[in-house]
Amino acid sequence: MQQVTAAVLPEERADVMLHSYEGGELTVSGPAILVRKNIGTSTSVFYNTYTDNITSASIDVQISGSPYEESRTEQTLGVDYLTGKTTLSFSYTDSTENDYEAGTVTVGLSQDFFGDLSTLTMGFSQGNDDISARVSSGGDPLEFEARSSIVRSNYRIGFTQVLTKNATLGFGFETITDEATSAPGEETTLNNPYRQYSYQVSGTDNRGFAFERYPNTRTSNALSLRGNYFLPWKGAIHYEYRTFQDSWGIRANNIGLTYVQPISHFVFEFRYRIYSQTQADFYQDLFDREDQFTFMARDKELSTYSSTAIGFGVSYEFAKKGWGWIDKGSLNFSYDLISFEYDNFRDATENVNDGIAAGTESFYAFDATVMQAFVSIWY
Amino acid sequence: MKRLPLIFLVATFVFSGCSTWEPWVKPYERENLSDPIMNVGRDPVVASYHHHVFETRESARGAGSVSGGGCGCN
Questions:
Q1: Contact across the interface for B30 and A5, Cβ inside 8 Å
Q2: CA distance A360 to A345
Q3: Of B25, B41, B44, which is closest to A117 when you measure between CB atoms?
Q4: If you measure CA to CA, which chain A residue comes closest to B19?
Q5: Which residues in chain B have their CB less than 8 angstroms from residue A50's CB?
Q6: Which of A228, A6, A229 is nearest to A114 (CA)?
Q7: Does domain A36-42+73-378 have CATH number 2.40.160?
Q8: pLDDT tens across A191-227, in order?
Q9: Residue B39 belongs to what domain range?
Q10: How far is Cα A174 from Cα B66, in angstroms, rounded to an integer?
Q11: Is residue B45 part of a domain?
Q12: How many domains does chain B divide into?
């Protein structure tokens, strides 16, 4: 959450990060670089590049395809302009992978008032995604076919208030709409074109599989409440609650608590977060038959499930009194363990590989480890 | 009628800004609030990464501390 102090430009700093996610037989790792620099006294520009190198043999892939490797690169160029107590922001993000192209324009406004005790933020993003699918498993180059295009619109508003000299409270609200247009002759809308739903093959204990079918629109609303509290011994507590609902029937809630404690040159951070959601109306782990309904999904992210994340971070600050052109720097490491437990998504590999009757397999669960190591310098 | 006191309270709060309204936390009392540890997103490269990790694995989206968009996930 944005700090509530008088409107100032963001800090001039550079960050170089290596990140890693490993869980559910999916590995995602890569570098990220973020550089921010002022131009004059009222303009700040930033550039961010971020890469995901993905190796996947996830449960979706085991059921619906074959293990794959791919890479996604995201780049953002943005500018913030400060005038009086108002900050205007503009950025463009481009995300590229071999079967997914996304471009997003974001504009924002932040206004301080009431003696700089209150900050109002508003923002709008529009994204245009082009989704294709691999149609050949070999050869070089691989062949892809267009499947759908998506227009995403985000509208958000936030308000942050200083309560006391040690506490702030804020809320945020965001509405997001997605509208997909299928490519000619295709049925892909907002779904992953490779993913399949599962149905009971008549007269057997076996699962059959067919490509998912989703609605072509989705609208969601999220409301969040966040607070920060400065502890008497120079530490900080951050808490967050968010509630969410969408037009697909999904309801979700998450709460989070973060404790930050500086000790000498170190800053320690401990995080805890719980998330839960209900399923989409058109989700089923096992449909009664093929083509049972107009819309049919078996994406585990549309099922009823919960997750718990526990993590810590440590930073070591160096050159705190400056060193050459560097004002200060920090070395940082962060680790999170996230446990996912699905209430109505079964491990269908038990049916496909071991012959256990469809609909009686164990419910799926997995743990993921998330790590980041990064160096930051301020100048 | 029960709402009347609340209306007066809100009106007092709103219109007091037009006269001699003073911030109840003075600028010289904001040292703790401006400490970097009070900003949970003080490292933007981490904040946007955590946002990405959760948003690609959860149906919930929006109203986070980081603006979304362009994550290339469906």
A1: yes
A2: 11
A3: B25
A4: A114
A5: 48-49
A6: A6
A7: yes
A8: 999 999 999 999 999 999 999 999 999 999 999 999 9
A9: 24-59
A10: 12
A11: yes
A12: 1
Buried b (16+ CB within 10 A) or exposed e, A210-232: ebbbbbbebebbbebebbbbbee
- Residues forming a β-bridge with A82: A87
pTM of this structure: 0.91
Phi and psi torsions of A358, nearest 5°: -55, 135
Structure tokens at A146: 């267009």
Cβ A248 vs Cβ A302: under 8 Å: yes
The pLDDT of residue B69 is 47
- Residue A100 burial (C-beta neighbours within 10 Å; 0-12, 13-18, 19+): buried
Count of Cβ atoms closer than 10 Å to residue A40 Cβ: 7
A158 chain-B contacts, CB cut-off 8 A: 63
The single-letter DSSP state of residue A373 is E
Contacts of A232 (CB under 8 A, 6+ apart): none
| Residue B47 domain flag | yes
**Could you tell me which chain B residue has the CA closest to the CA of A116?**
B23
* Neighbour-count burial of A79, counting CB atoms closer than 10 A to its CB (0-12 exposed, 13-18 middle, 19+ buried): middle
**pLDDT of A339-379, one tens digit each?**
999 999 999 999 999 999 999 999 999 999 999 999 999 99
Q: Which of A335, A363, A328 is nearest to A348 (CA)?
A: A363
Query: pLDDT tens across B11-42, in order?
Result: 555 555 555 668 899 989 999 999 999 999 99
CB pairs under 8 A between A and B: 198
Specify if B9 maps to a domain. Answer: no
| Residue B52 distance to chain A (closest CA, Å) | 11
Residues 6+ apart with CB under 8 A from A52: A28, A29, A30, A71, A72, A73, A74
Cβ neighbours, 10 Å, residue B63: 26
CB contact under 8 A, B58 and A301: yes
Phi, psi of A324 (to 5 degrees): 60, -130
Q: Would you say A133 and A188 are in contact if contact means Cβ atoms under 8 Å apart?
A: yes
Residue type, A94: D
Select the residue of A1, A21, A254 nearest B65 (Cβ to Cβ).
A1
* pLDDT of A183 above 70: yes
